[in-house]
Amino acid sequence: MNILLLGSGGREHALAWKIAASPLLTRLWCAPGNAGIAQEAECIALDVADHSVVIEFCRRNAVDLVVVGPETPLAAGIVDDLAIAGIKAFGPGRQAAQLEGSKGFTKDLCREFDIPTGSYRRFANAAEALAYVRTQGAPIVVKADGLAAGKGVVVAMTMADAEAAIAMMFDGAFGAAGAEVVIEEFLSGREISFFALCDGDTAIPLASAQDHKRVFDHDRGPNTGGMGAYSPTPFVTPEVHDRIMSDIILPTVAGMKQRGTPFRGVLYAGVMLTTDGPKLFEYNVRFGDPECQVLMLRMMSDIVPAFLASCDGQLKNFDLRWFPDPALTVVMAAKGYPGDYTKATRIDGLVDAAKLEGVEIFHAGTMAKDGAILANGGRVLNVCASGKTVGEAQRRAYQAVDRIKWPEGFCRRDIGWQAVEQERGG
Ligand code: AMP
User: Edge-to-edge, what's the strand order for the sheet holding 372-375?
Assistant: First the structure.
């Protein structure tokens, strides 16, 4: 098969690595890709926002399957446009991608199909939103309705923070994405990510993971796209797993089908394990980044037939195998991230680091220049490892980190700490 992968981050490097291992593969391209992805795929410069350009490339190169990594092309309807052109693509269509593209859409779906989530209301103007938060009190969560590159959520611990967030969103901080705002009950508990592969009818669980959103150790500092992750998380016990499937994932898939907008692709649930049981606080409609990296390390089965089964509605009889060993990834970012940072700094030691047992290094934002690897983004490398325990995976990943020579980079030193503590009986 000829496959085209869209995206340029660590998630796409992990997907490219996994797709490249498939015996079904003839040729793999990635648009636009990065220096790491170039080891697995032919990187090509395509304007992915222009769907006709992607269609034209697929026709010219007899592409059999397009795999879409990030959410933006999904929300823009690339899967629908490819389908109209007769090209198979993995991921949800424009309507189903609203599960990520509109927070209000997801909350309304939860209400309609009785899916456990925090109470909420939707607002189109600041005055009504302010009046509502005053009746609710803090802590409370203020969310821009649309896609805001992961920045559209403010967990307001005080009334003043909530008021400032509402003012900022209606002042246009997120453009059209903030023209509507969802105000949501603050949920307390442990936060986990849960992934399921869907074909419109059937959902099969992939695995659980926990990511680390704050930039510094001990969960301090601003939120980021994710500084590390591990899978599975011990906090998703078999009982919690079953409840997430029966109360959240399956009613979502059934509800979307009933509405005539079946969901195909990866459904990524952000779930809070509250004292009242698991509650959904958000959906994403693609693999998480960096969670995808650890899922790919743990997936034993060929991923290409799984993508095809999702596209073709054939997951009912499908089985996915996993390696039992946990996997963990440490994100190395450019100093200053998530604020300003310097680009084009040189990274050495990658080959040496990758020689360590169980270690795999994915590139999140790199470019190659004159035989050297240069940083080309905020999150730059995903140093991944598997091991018999999360603790062993963690040790291996940090050994690899210590072999990488990149003075302008940094990472958290505590990825996986909750699971390691639990393993130690703490
Ligand atoms: P998101 O950008 O949607 O991933 O949200 C960012 C973070 O906000 C999440 O990872 C949660 O930690 C937090 N969050 C979102 N919704 C809620 C909620 N209802 N209660 C508490 N925390 C939340």
Answer: 346-347, 372-375, 366-369
**SS3 state of residue 164:** helix
pLDDT in tens, 324-370: 999 999 999 999 999 999 999 999 999 999 999 999 999 999 999 99
- How many Å lie between the centroid of ligand 1 and the Cα of residue 105? 16
Does pTM top 0.90 for this prediction? yes
Distance in Å, CA 396 to ligand 1 centroid: 30
Burial 39-70 (b: 16+ CB within 10 A, else e): ebbebeebebeebeebbebbeeeebbbbbbbb
Taking the C-alpha atoms of residue 405 and residue 45, their distance in angstroms, rounded to an integer, is 29
Secondary structure (DSSP) of 52-87: HHHHHHHHHTT--EEEE-SHHHHHTTHHHHHHHTT-
Nearest atom, ligand 1, residue 152 CA: 2
Angle at which helix 250-258 crosses helix 103-113, to 10 degrees, equals 100
Name every residue whose Cβ is closer than 8 Å to that of residue 256 and which is 6 or more positions away in sequence. 96, 99, 109, 200, 262, 263
DSSP-derived pairing of the beta strands 327-334 and 214-216: unpaired
Name 274's bridge partners: 277
- Determine the residue of 282, 283, 291 to mutate for testing ligand 1's pocket, defined as the one with the most ligand atoms within 8 A of the Cβ atom: 282
**Contact status, residue 2 vs residue 88, Cβ threshold 8 Å:** no
User: Going by CA atoms, what residue is nearest to atom 13 of ligand 1?
Assistant: 155
CB 171 within 8 A of CB 124: no
In the reported structure, the alpha carbon of residue 211 is separated from the centroid of ligand 1 by a whole-number distance in angstroms of: 12
Residues having CB within 6 Å of any atom of ligand 1: 118, 141, 150, 153, 155, 184-187, 191, 213, 270, 281-282
pLDDT tens column, 8-62: 999 999 999 999 999 999 999 999 999 999 999 999 999 999 999 999 999 999 9
pLDDT tens digits for range 370-406: 999 999 999 999 999 999 999 999 999 999 999 999 9
pLDDT at residue 426 is higher than 80: no
